[in-house]
Automatic annotation (TrEMBL):
Residue ranges occupied by any Peptidase M48 domain in the UniProt entry: 177-333
Protein name: M48 family metallopeptidase
Similarity comment: family membership: Belongs to the peptidase M48 family.
CDD domains xrefs: M48C_Oma1_like
Region (Disordered): 340-372
Species: Pontibacter aquaedesilientis
Biased composition (Polar residues): 363-372
Cofactors that this protein relies on: Zn(2+)
Bias (Basic and acidic residues) ranges: 340-355
Entries under InterPro entries matching the protein: Mito/Outer_Membr_Metalloprot, Peptidase_M48
Cofactor note: Binds 1 zinc ion per subunit.
Length: 372
């Protein structure tokens, strides 16, 4: 089987007309150079990897300077495949490069996909967390007010107890960067949560469980720490970061605030990691210390929550985990040294109103309770 093509001897760039014959042991090439006809024989083992395109086949032979042939005929390649099936030189370098390029593209695509997934899973929430840290306080206060208003629409607020709680807060030295506004809602649920910008919601259920106002001081100190350190804002933006990213991608920047407000109910179920909870516990303890209140109020609150019935405490424990560990840390922070404390008539008066009883009836203080 013979085909027409061009032969290159490796010493000149000039192609010479040639007749290329396929033989069982290799290729016979009869070429014409300066009107002189000559013949070379290529053994199959010496033929190098071929290059194919739609019409042209290029084969090389030998060592430097390599000989080569070029045949413009689709049938030549098919004839090579039939005559020398499985030969190494039929594994096209062009196709190998194409496969290598395709493999590289696939690896790159998978790598980019992996980076995208990693960014979505870890990067987006982390970015949202950083944004929350630098959120202007003025806007945080405005956002908090909207969240607070939106949340209270789903509750029945106890006006008398709300007034008493805000009176209690006004008597405390909170050292907070925000004005404080709190509400007591009618619910048997044992829970309380902080809202960005200086707002707080406390359930009647958790107040009913308390026996001493120092426990309330520890509770509000804990929640106020979440506000001061922007734990609530950070947790909320992290939990809603994907919705916020979608708003930004679709150019609806104003929709970011709308997403937060529309999901205000998420605040009651926000979960903080162990380090943030312990930070809030430490600062809540510091609030007791600053106001010269009995530090055991913080421990008693945790013990009451830790040993309450499962149904009563489920809501609070689910959003404030590791209660037993936190009691241990609080005891370590308090230590054996006695911290001076004193009665605070103003706090006690608001506490009595909050509990719905007259001051004349009286109630045990934490100090009295401990000395019995």
């Amino acid at each position: 089987m013979t085909f027409e093509g061009k032969y290159y001897n490796g010493r000149s760039s000039k192609g010479m007309p040639a007749q290329i014959t396929l033989r069982p042991d290799g290729l016979r090439i009869d070429y014409c150079a300066d009107e002189v006809t000559d013949t070379v024989h290529w053994e199959t083992a010496g033929i190098h990897q071929s290059e194919f395109n739609d019409a042209t086949t290029l084969l090389r032979y030998g060592k430097f300077p390599q000989q080569s042939i070029s045949v413009v005929d689709k049938g030549f390649r098919e004839a090579l495949l039939q005559c020398y099936r499985g030969a190494a030189f039929l594994k096209s370098g062009y196709n190998s490069m194409l496969r290598l390029w395709a493999s590289g593209i696939a690896v790159m695509a998978l790598s980019l996909l992996g980076l995208l997934v990693a960014f979505i899973v870890w990067g987006v929430p982390a970015l949202a967390d950083r944004v929350a840290l630098y959120f202007p306080q003025q806007y945080e206060r405005q956002l908090g007010q909207q969240l607070y208003t939106q949340l209270l629409q789903g509750y029945q607020v106890d006006d008398a107890k709300t007034a008493a709680l805000n009176g209690y807060l006004s008597e405390l030295d909170t050292d907070l960067d925000y004005p404080i506004k709190a509400a007591v809602v009618k619910s048997d649920e044992v829970n309380a949560f902080a809202i960005p910008g200086g707002y707080m919601v406390v359930y009647e259920g958790i107040i009913d469980k308390m026996e001493h106002h120092e426990e309330l001081a520890a509770l509000v100190g804990h929640e106020l720490a979440h506000i001061q350190n922007r734990h609530s804002l950070r947790a909320l933006t992290r939990s809603l970061s994907y919705y916020m990213l979608a708003s930004v991608l679709f150019g609806d920047i104003s929709g970011v605030a709308a997403v937060l407000v529309d999901n205000a109910s998420a605040l009651r179920n926000l979960e903080y990691n162990r380090s943030l909870e312990l930070e809030a516990d430490r600062e809540g303890l510091e609030l007791l210390r600053r106001n010269e209140l009995n530090l055991q109020g913080a421990v008693l609150l945790m013990e009451r929550l830790d040993f309450g019935s499962e149904s009563d405490m489920l809501a609070f424990v689910s959003t404030h985990p590791n209660t037993g560990d936190r009691i241990k840390v609080l005891n370590e922070l308090i230590g054996d040294r006695k911290q001076p404390y004193k009665k605070n008539p103003g706090l006690e008066r608001h506490w009595e109103s909050l509990k719905g009883r007259n001051k004349t009836k009286g109630s045990d203080t934490l100090e009295q309770n401990q000395t019995r």
